[in-house]
Each structure stands twice: as structure tokens, then as C-alpha cells.
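Q: What does the assembled structure look like for these inputs?
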Amino acid sequence: MFGYIMRRVLLMIPTLILISMISFVTIQLPPGDYLTSYAATLRTQGESIQEEAIAQLRDRYGLGQPVYQQYIKWVTGIITKGDWGQSMEWQRPVGELIWERLGLTLVLSLVSLFVGWFIAIPIGVYSATHQYSIPDYVMSVISFIGVGVPGFLLALIVMYFAQTRLGLNVGGLFSEKYINAPWDWNKLVDMLRHFWIPMLILSVEGTAGGIRTTRANLLDELNKPYVELARAKGLTEQRMLWKYPVRVALNPFFSTVGWSLANLVSGATLISVVLSLQTTGPMQLRALTSQDMYLAGTFLFLLSALTVIGTLISDILLAWVDPRIRLEA
Amino acid sequence: MLAELVKAGKLPPVAQRLPKNPMVMVGYEGIGKYGGLWRRAFSGVSDKWGPTKLVDRFWAWFDKNLTLIPRLLESWSVSPDAKTWTLKLRQGVKWSDGVEHTTADWEWWYKYELQNKLISPGQNDVWMSPNKVLAKLEVVDKYTAKFTYEKPKPMLIYSNTRGGTGAQGNYGNPCCPSHYQKTIHVDTVADKAALEAEWKKAGAASWETWYINTAGCWHLNPARPVLGGWLCKKRMASELFEMERNPYFFAVDAQGNQLPYIDKVNHRLYETAEVRNLWATNGEIDMQARSMEIANIPLYKASEAKGDYKCVLAIAASHVAIQLNLSTKNKLLNEFFNIRNVRIAISHAVNRDNINQIIYNGMLKPRQYSPLPMSPQYYPKLSNAYIKYDPDTANKLLDEAGYAKKGADGIRFHKDGTTPISFIIEGTDQTGTPGEDQVLMIAKDLAKVGIKATYKYFERALYTQHYTANDIEAASWGGDRTVLPLVPEAIIFRGVQPDRPWCPGWGFWYREQAGNPNAVKPPDGHWIWNIWKIWDEEVAVEPDEAKRTAAFLKILDIWATELPNIGILGEQPYPTIVKNGFKGYVAGMPNDDTTGDEQFCQSETYYWDDPSKHMG
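A:
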């Protein structure tokens, strides 16, 4: 097992190098660059910028250089100084920008993820063991709706009702007066009052999907001979259920850890955009559309790296929960 | 807010903070009250113009009648040949840190910024003669300076009605806080190693990049002293951008009270228009026009009571218009578009009232792209040219122009007799927007007279690529800058603003001649040469305001005859959210970039009738 992990870790190095190249080239693919999109944004806002000024800025940002030179400059900065480059829009170091938003992003994503699992697994198990009962039908209907309604639409609807019916202020995670205030008890309370909307919306999709997956997988497992055997050996129904088939049915939760990790950072981008949450998702989207290349490149690289690491973790976890996958002879 | 600071000895009394002869700013709703917070919304650093336009009214500003009144400058005069400008500063204007602003600042800027090749690799047109020679600066005394140009520069003062904040990122303004800049300029700082360590620490790629952001951009560096009414509390890089009153601001109201009235201005970051609209309708935006959409006027109006505000209408400078590319590479279309009667026929073929009623609830006015009625260059002959819905005349004109032959589908043929007349109208308006709906309606009207036009949405970068390469057949892109068209140098009327591509190829020719591979030389004797000639020889060099306007009307007359652009609707209302109790901004004002959008009435004179209710 140890040798296997080592091999995988070593393989990650060339993978990541390749990814960093592809990320960087991908960002350069669309026509234009940060400055053309900047000039275009200005024009739609009714502002004007002289072509000469754009040419000057282009030199200043080094945008006139060939792609490979820009790439080498970027990578050298990362390796030698841990410098991920400067965001063109925000005029600040990329590392600082992402780091600033990462904390809240992780809290929000993790809470929603676990809330989703926490609700989905017991309900899924119940639905599977009580197949075709009334509660099963009710749960199925609800979870189908949950899976079917796009998160951003749900966000819009919830936001509208929260504001018009409940009179809450929406958008963002804080009231205006606490945004720049230092952390204290009041700020925390204020955040918790805003927190439930994104948490609810983010966990709905995960919950609904989780219920369906758990139910379907568990139904497959329940008819297998090993379940019969466990029953025959006299295990109580509950103990048998949680010890064997549920563990196998949870397989998908673990095998998707690989994406979950990247999702923690960029997941639910659309929902966050709609809710104006100051998380990393909207920043990433904005960096991509405005061709803010170092920021966008760092995001792509970070997400890819997290996926690679996540895949490794999920493989290890799978081996742990599912004896059939273990590689030991 | 400031009285306490004075009491505590942290600030000199107001008499010492004001210049000897402060600017007297007359509010549109009288004398105001001090204090309060003004909440707004913005969409990120690229939207810095929202906050910037609160503070960038500069040397002079406009009164209600669009006449210039001195602001930062006490007075100015221009020589009869329009080559020499004598500018007089108010004595005792102070930067936000209390240091006096004098012509020494101008001198420093001229030497260390304007002529520094790292900071200003190319120069801004404002400081150059049309022949690209730099103006000469001569400092007469502490408060008087002269700019001398090789060629006439009659519009210099207009180029400085807004400015001084460096928000554009390209450097160049005489009003720079040289006492501060000196401490970070590589030529004037003693400890160069420490300076280098500083900009490297900030993550900048080079000294000049860092310098421009640090010394030039008011919104990125709270330490940089400013002259505007409010200053930046914390750099614009987070969810809330906070501004606070400048205790040294150089203007007073009619009773001698120092301005601005409002203490704090907050801009809150939004990611989608929906959230911004919810904030507005919930009363969480106090006063803002920027980014509010005409399509949402019913929504804003319906929520007035709940949000405790009024949706006040300003008049936007923009127009609904389509541009037929008169310099298109497509030979048949080029021939077609360049026939004057064809353009007139297309204009008559569009049912403007119908579009106005269906898409805009009748709120706009049928008109050609032309200066607004409030503009000194208003020219009704152009505004009303060929706007009548008259498909019969349109058909007749097209028949007479040699396009009488039609196919089975009713579409006319080009003169070659086999190719149907069909072109693509490009635009950046996405599906479901009023912008798309209006082009679809125009296309339907054109089909009725036998012309096939298809709307195609393009992502903005692609659209830009198409017009830059003169690869565009037609476009649906509104026209603005119609309040004071001369100030932005009438770039749309002259056809040199290629994103309104009625003749991008010709525009490139005007600017760069054969130097641009996409430039197309207009045919000899073409009316566009007249437009350019009138502009270059009669408008751009004329010191007298009335003569300048008269000359410009000659250009508008060519427009009224030739109709280069097909204007559809204009005088569009611009929704402006104004919280009840917020005073100083009145309805019916122009909303245009040149005139500072909703800051036209001088935001320093805006106030709360009960500031204690709006402390945030």
C-alpha cells in the first residue's frame, strides 16, 4: 500500500506540470486579452479609453510577449518566490486574493457538504429499506425536485422570498456595517443570520442527489447473497444493515471525494454569483471572463491540483471502506 | 464629524482648511445639512468609475444650462489663436493631508511624470498638439501657469472637466500631490534600495507599474492625497469600498459652509444584477443611477413604497441605432449601403413607434442619432430626418435605386441579379434582452420591404475582433455622447469610433492611413472627407464657442442629408434610485459620461434632510 501511494505521489508531479501548461494555454485561447475585455467593459459602461493607453498598458503587463515566455515567467515566480503573479483587475497579488476568500469558502462548502450527507444517508437508507412505502414515495418526489431544480434558480426564488416576505437583506454573507468590521460576537451572529440561505441552497442539491444514490445502491446490495448470509447468521437487521450493505452503498460518496475537494473551492459558482457571496467561485468566474490570466491560471491550476490529490485520497478511502478494492495480495 | 476632530486638535479649524477664495457651489435643492452615509453598489475594480465619478469633477464644471463654471481653477483665459492657455489656481487649495496645492505640483508633474518615459511611454492627447508635439508648461507664479501648444487647442478646458484621479491607469495630470509622489519616485527618492524593496514586496512586476497604482490611482492607495470631495478609506479590493469626506475640500455652499455635506459613501460589491436590484427595491441603495436598467423601471417603480425611495428619471445620452458598415469588404453590400436613398429607405422602413410601444412602453422618442434637445448643438433637422414610418416610400426608393427585382421569398436581389440582399447585424445583446428584441423587430420591418437582415449575438471580444478587422457588415450598437458631443471630440459623428461601426475602415484611414492594414481609403470627393475637413479646420481649432458650434452644425447637416447611421429611438429615460429624504439631485438631468452621470448636479451638494436617520 505504501509503495502504491508513493508511486501515485511521484506520478502527480509530471501531471501537475502538464496541467499548469494546459491551464495557461487555455486561458490564452479566447481572442483578445485582459485589456481588450477591460476596454470593452469600459465602453459598455459608457466610458472611453484611448487606444494608445491600452497599448501602453499592454507593454506594462507584458501581454505582448509570446505565451511561452509569459508562462516561464509565471512558473519561475511560483517556484522561486511562491509568487503566483499579480491580478490585473484587482492590482493585488493573486495568492493574497484567493487566500482572503478561501476561509469562508471552505466553511460554507464543508458545512453544506456534511449537512447534505447527514440528511441524505439516513433518508436514503430508510427509503431503500422501505421501498414503495408512502414515505419512500414522498422522499422520492422531493428528492427528484431537488435534483431537477437548478441551484441558481432556487437561489433566486429563496432570495426573493427572503427579501419580500421575510424582510431579510440578502446578497453576501454580512450586513453592510459588518463587512469591514473586525471579527466579534455581533459579526458572527450577523453572519449566521445570512449563512442559512446559501447553506440551504448548496445542501439541497447534494442532499437530493445523495438520497437517490444511497437508495439505488442500497437496493442493489440488499438482494445480494451476503446479506442473506448475515441474516442467517442471526445478526439483528439494524446491525447487519449498517455493517455491510450500507458501507458498500456509500462507495460513491467516497469515490467522489476526488471532485469534492476541488468543489470546495469552486463548487456552486453560479449559486455564489447569484447570491453575491464573496467566495472564491465568483472570483474565479470573473477572472476567466475578464481574462485576468494569472488569477485565472492560478485557479485552474489549484482546482486541478486539488482534483489530483482528491483522487488519490478517494482511492485510499475506497480501499479502506471497501475490502474488495484493496490492492494487497 | 469634523468639528470633533478640530476640538481634539487633530485638525485645524475650517477657515484654515479652505482656500482664500473657495469655490461657491450652488446646490440644486438649496442649503443642506451635514452628516450621514450614502449607500451605493458597484461590481468590482473594473467598475471603479462609479465611485470615481463622485470625486473627479475637476478644473471646471457645468451648471444647469451646461455652461462651464470655474471649479478647482479660479479662472482661465485662452489666447486668440487658441494656442496659449493661462490657468489660475485658487490660492490656498489644500490636498487632503493639508499640504497646499500650487503650480510647483504642476512643474514636478511635467518633469518627473509627463516626460518620464517609463511612466508615460506615450502621451495623452490632452497634453499634445494635434501634430503630436508636447505642450510647453511655463510657471508664472505660485498660482499661475501657462500651457503653450504648437497648434490650436481650444477644448483644453473641456478635457479637464473630469480628471485628476488617475483612475484610468494611464498617467498624466498636472494636479498631482508632488510632496507625496517625491517619496516614491525613483528619480527623487534618496534610498533607492528601500524603494525597490517596497514595490517588490507589493508584488509588482516593475517600479513603474507600482508607481502608477500607488501615486496615480486614488482608489488603490488611501495614502495618496486627493483634491476631491471624498477620499478612499481602504483600497478598493474587497466587498465594501468606503469613502469619507475630505476635510480640506476647496468648495463651500452659498452660505459659506464647507462641502461636502455627506460624511461617508459606501459602495457594496455585487456579482449579479439581481442582487443589486433586490438591494435597490429593498431600500438598501440610497442614490444611484449607474447600472440601473431601463427594462427594470416597472420593478423600481412598483417597489418605491416598500423601499422608501423614488425612481427618478434622468435623460440618457444613448440611442437605439443600427450601423451599416459603409466601408464593408463585401462588394455588393458596399455598393448597396453606399447609396444614399437606400439608407433613407431603410430608415423609413422601420416602425419606430411600434418598437417604442412594445419594448419600451413608449418611454423613448423616435429620433435619429443626434445631440439631445438640452445640448448646445441640438439640431432638430437631423433628429427628425427620415423617421416617419413609410414603407411605401421605402419600397419606391429601393426600386428606383435599382433593386426592384425580387426573389420568390420577396427578398430583393443585388444588382448582379442573382444574390439576394442579406446581411448580418452583429450585437452583444443576449437572447431575451430588450437589446435583442429591438433588432429582431427592425429585421422584421426590413423584411417587409424586401431586405433580409439577421441578428447575430457575439461575445464582446469577438465583436471587437470583427470591427477591428473591418469584418463586420452591420451592427446594433447604440450611440451616446450626445449631451456635449464636442467634448469627446464627436468621435461617433466623425466615424472614428470603430465600435459604432458605420465606417470602421474609413475611421482607421483617418487615424492611421495605410499604417493600418484594415484601413480603407474613402472614395475621392466623398462627403466623409468634408466631415473630417470641417472638423480639423473649423471645429477642432476654433477658440470661439459659438463659431465652433456653427461649424459643427455643418457636420450635422451632412448627417441629416446623408444619414450615415440609422437612428431609431432616443431620449431614453435613465432610472435613478433616490431614497426619500435624499436631496440635491433632481429629475430630468442629462445622464452621460461627459457630464458625470448622476453626479451632474455636483454630489458634494447632495444631502440628507435628516442625517441622523442615515448614519449606517
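The two ends of chain B are 14 Å apart (CA to CA).
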